[in-house]
Structure formats: C-alpha cells, structure tokens
Please model this.
Amino acid sequence: MYTIDIVRIEREARQLRARELQRIEGLIAARLGLYGQLLAATALSALAAVGESLRPLFSWNPKNRHPA
Model:
C-alpha cells in the first residue's frame, strides 16, 4: 500500500485555491474596470445631451430681437 502524504496534499490544495482566487479577483477587477469605463461614457453622453437641451435657455438674448 502507498502512503498518503496529507501535508503535501493540503499544501498543494491551498496553493491551487490561492491561484484560483487570484484569477477570479483579476477577472472581477477587469470587469469592474470595463463597467466603470462604460458608466463614465454613459454619464458623459447624458451630460452632453442635457447640456444641448439646456443651451437654448441660456443663449436667449432679448437685445438681439429685431423690431417687427
């Protein structure tokens, strides 16, 4: 019968678990970075749309009116 090296198996299992957790953390960080970029782009687009819709309110000048 073969002897089972429990200490070695536990050590390898911990190393595998640590590598898997690092891989998952890397995936999460990449996804969060992408979502952050998408959110920033969406917010910038929304602000530009709001700015364009508000521009006529602030560009009106009664002095430029031509007499009828």
User: Anything to note?
Assistant: The mean pLDDT is 91. Residues 6-59 form the longest helix (54 residues). The radius of gyration is 30 Å.
